[in-house]
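Quick one, T. Sequence first:
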Amino acid sequence: MNDERSLTTPWGTGLIVAAFVAAVTGAAITVLSLGLIRVHPLLAVGLNVVAVGGLAPTLWGWRHTPVLRWFVLGAAVGVTIGWLAVLVLAASGNG
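Structure tokens:
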């Protein structure tokens, strides 16, 4: 049953899911990291590295699963945006 509908990728829905996951992930990383920076900057860096290092193998395995790949894309973008936001806010003195 390989018809044309089963071979198409739901780009619209998938990108909306990825954007939502990116927004939630980016906001969570930014807020939690800024809180940890107030305690100690190395604590924030260390916990971010441990969290992402622990989650990366699971996400790497999900990247070819049709529905979960959108979550993987969103998580990757969200982590990147979150880390950039933390760097900018910490460098500007708002952290």
